[in-house]
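Cross-posted from the bioinformatics board.
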Amino acid sequence: LPHLLHGERATARKGLTSDVPVAWDGDGIEFIDQRALPREFVVLKARNVDDVVDAIATLGVRGAPAIGVFGAYGCALAAQQLGGTELERAFARIREARPTAVNLAWAVDRVRARADGDYLTEARTIHDEQVEMDRLLGESAIELFPSTGNVLTHCNTGPLATAGGGTALGAIVAAYRSGKSIAVFACETRPLLQGARLTMYELGQAGVPATLIVDSAAAITMRRKDIQLVIVGADRIARNGDVANKIGTYTHAIAAAYHGIPFYVAAPRSTFDFSLESGDAIPIEERRPEEVRIAEGDAVYNPAFDVTPGRLVTAFITEYGIIRPPYFESIPDLETRPNFLAAKRH
Amino acid sequence: LPHLLHGERATARKGLTSDVPVAWDGDGIEFIDQRALPREFVVLKARNVDDVVDAIATLGVRGAPAIGVFGAYGCALAAQQLGGTELERAFARIREARPTAVNLAWAVDRVRARADGDYLTEARTIHDEQVEMDRLLGESAIELFPSTGNVLTHCNTGPLATAGGGTALGAIVAAYRSGKSIAVFACETRPLLQGARLTMYELGQAGVPATLIVDSAAAITMRRKDIQLVIVGADRIARNGDVANKIGTYTHAIAAAYHGIPFYVAAPRSTFDFSLESGDAIPIEERRPEEVRIAEGDAVYNPAFDVTPGRLVTAFITEYGIIRPPYFESIPDLETRPNFLAAKRH
């Protein structure tokens, strides 16, 4: 297993649970190795920049917000051990460990910009803000859940993905902990199976009843299994409510509309791209054919995500509350709200 | 590999191509081993009843019509080697090699009922009829295909599945061979990946351009890849046009309707259950959780098929031509047509 090659198995892992998959511990960063889940619960400790870059690049830590938090701590770790041009090089290496993860570059830049050089405090602030955002988002969501019934979700949007409580999965867990008697149908999420591997694990940890289905069973599940709502996360949201998210989201949104089931997207304000008029402009990233094909040489179309039209989204769940249609009014309004997290910092 | 344990690798396999996956050869039955595809093209020869039962039970031969043809030849093979109660026991063993395959029991009963005991002739007739049905079905379908464009299909419905030309896949190949410039997007078909393993292989053999996608990419593919029609097979069709078919069919039908894309079901008349008023009465067979889950103990809902409402089906393609709505008229009408295959036999 690759997790044995880099980092070190942590023996004492005080406070590190599946709710807190990333934690600073004085001279390194402990993290839950997502490559080993669900077969094994392994906590590793990144002790230097090589460990940090490796964990990010090989998906030991994945999920855009979680990578941001981990990368921020990585910068603090680098600053303990390096200086001058070596430190600048370390910042650059961490920043580029996964080029497409927007949160990572943002977090590294924010830490580096800290005027007094107290990088650890900045990293802790980024982490605290993430936890707070996820908590508020989860609280906003509770009212949308029925007191009893089933919900359907796709991919992984829990603590492992954000290093906080999670977005869509955080909302489900918040609703469950508020006393609602809900059970989850989790789509396995081909080709990389984040639902089967990580979401089922996290729901088990949280004690929420969960049942795994193949992605294409979503429609019959909606019809026969009393699904009350569908809830997913997002990678990027346009000004008109169009949502780029993990491949399969669009299919589920269409099936939810057909069955008259509410379809919710849980995402912090930072996921909204207010400069983007619609989802039409979002390029569909394609990944390697090897993720899907069995016979070598077979042609594969392997889009990493799809774009769901805003008209199929019942509402967005954010740390600022529920955002409802018409989105051409409510999403620009969201942009104008004062940043209470920044306000807290001062 | 299990295919090395039973049967024998055939050296001479005259005439046995992927268009003819099952063939009688005098003292045994040659067949393409579907367990080895697509990694290896292996032809095995079943030399006795044990080989026949093993090939059916372990999916060396799969697809309801193909199993029927293979089982019929199996009875002829048994009759060469056995007599009396031994032969009766062999018939029973073959008949029960896969209890849920309706065609198998039907074919064994038909061979056994042959008054003059010429079982081989009866098996050949069953096979010939299957080939003829598939050919006529494919011919019916050609007019529905555009002269150029892409089509989407699900699961495997080609020669391997029927021992003839196939149903939905046979229709695609017939359209392609008639000169239409079409290309196929094939859904991988979780959990057992018949699309990725068998459909991609068969399209490659037939020379039809094919691209593999994960099942949940169907909607974005319909939106972005110029899909002109969706075509699938069926396990059972009710009097109102409701269709039981491989899990995922219902999801694709909803997405096709959302995108205004025609959704066709290709199936011979024998797939219509004229005694069934609607699909509501069809029980949803659930298969083993091990086909889907990664972590032991995880709960799984693993329906083997789903039911698509007749109102989502643009038309049925049969050996009697195209059956269009309103189905409460056209399907009962289909029931009354004279059986031209039986007529040919006399």
